[in-house]
């Protein structure tokens, strides 16, 4: 029998399977699950357990950023532009969001 806390988590948690590797994307703000206004700018953490990851990555997600705020020399829609798989997974829920790795080199 599955406990109610496992069916309805109190904190946002996503299990990610990207390019044959698995990780956990999670937040510490329980209101992110129930209040859409919290989805403007928020923080998520990513942990994969891979050798190259020495600490949990702290990501800042901005769902209301504007294209002109991005680096003008880089067009994210061009075919040659590559984004980390975790960012692409995040954008399946929050289309057009910008993801800041807060000083951590994207590794996944």
UniProtKB/TrEMBL annotation:
Residues 63-85 are annotated as: Disordered. The gene is Mindy4b_0. This is Ubiquitin carboxyl-terminal hydrolase MINDY. Belongs to the MINDY deubiquitinase family. FAM188 subfamily. Residues 6-103 form the Deubiquitinating enzyme MINDY-3/4 conserved domain. InterPro entries: MINDY-3/4_CD, MINY3/4. GO terms for biological process: protein K48-linked deubiquitination; proteolysis. The keyword Protease applies. Its EC number is 3.4.19.12. It comes from the Eukaryota. It catalyses: Thiol-dependent hydrolysis of ester, thioester, amide, peptide and isopeptide bonds formed by the C-terminal Gly of ubiquitin (a 76-residue protein attached to proteins as an intracellular targeting signal). Hydrolase that can remove 'Lys-48'-linked conjugated ubiquitin from proteins.
């Amino acid at each position: 029998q599955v406990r109610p806390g496992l069916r309805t988590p109190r904190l946002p948690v996503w299990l990610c399977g990207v390019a044959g590797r698995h990780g956990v994307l999670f937040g510490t703000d329980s209101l992110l699950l129930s209040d859409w206004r919290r989805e403007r700018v928020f923080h998520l953490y990513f942990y994969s357990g891979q050798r190259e990851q020495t600490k949990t990555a702290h990501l800042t997600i901005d769902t209301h950023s504007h294209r002109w705020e991005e680096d003008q020399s880089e067009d994210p829609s061009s075919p040659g532009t590559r984004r980390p798989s975790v960012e692409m997974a995040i954008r399946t829920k929050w289309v057009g969001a910008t993801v800041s790795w807060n000083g951590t080199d994207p590794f996944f």
